[in-house]
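Page 37, continued from 36.
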């Protein structure tokens, strides 16, 4: 009974908060809690302590990652541009408006963090004011700190 119940007559009797024929399914929803306090970000169901995302656009351990949603990349593009390259629309107000994330410079795109890390991660490709592409990732860790990695 995977340590979560007692076997009686070859049938598992599960302890509270566990279910399944082998008591291997946790009813605890804590691992499914998204940063907004909703179970599976309101975009999935918590099954055995794991999110099953029902909205196909969202994925990740708490259904918070959305690679196709407009938002994260466009929202932070101007701040990343002024912090990393000292240019763009927020150049003059950068120190007031754009200090809400930790920034790390990397040498090349293959040095950017890759999917599979514990924090939801967005890969971004945006055009700067000179019509050149620049690349960065945006993630938020368990402490709510935003981290940006940008290609030099």
């Amino acid at each position: 009974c995977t340590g979560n119940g007692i076997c009686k007559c070859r049938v598992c009797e599960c302890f509270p908060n566990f279910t399944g024929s082998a008591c291997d399914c946790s009813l605890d929803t804590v691992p499914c809690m998204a940063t907004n306090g909703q179970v599976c970000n309101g975009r999935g169901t918590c099954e055995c302590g794991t999110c099953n995302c029902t909205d196909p656009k969202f994925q990740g351990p708490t259904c918070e990652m959305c690679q196709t949603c407009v938002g994260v990349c466009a929202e932070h593009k101007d701040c990343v541009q002024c912090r990393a390259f000292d240019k763009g629309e927020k150049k003059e107000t950068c120190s007031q408006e754009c200090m809400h994330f930790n920034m790390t410079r990397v040498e090349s795109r293959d040095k950017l963090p890759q999917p599979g890390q514990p924090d939801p991660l967005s890969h971004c490709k945006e055009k700067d004011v000179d019509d050149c592409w620049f690349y960065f990732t945006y993630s938020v860790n368990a402490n709510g700190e935003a981290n940006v990695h940008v290609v030099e």
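The two ends are 53 Å apart (CA to CA). Flag for discussion at group meeting. The helical segments are 72-85, 94-97.
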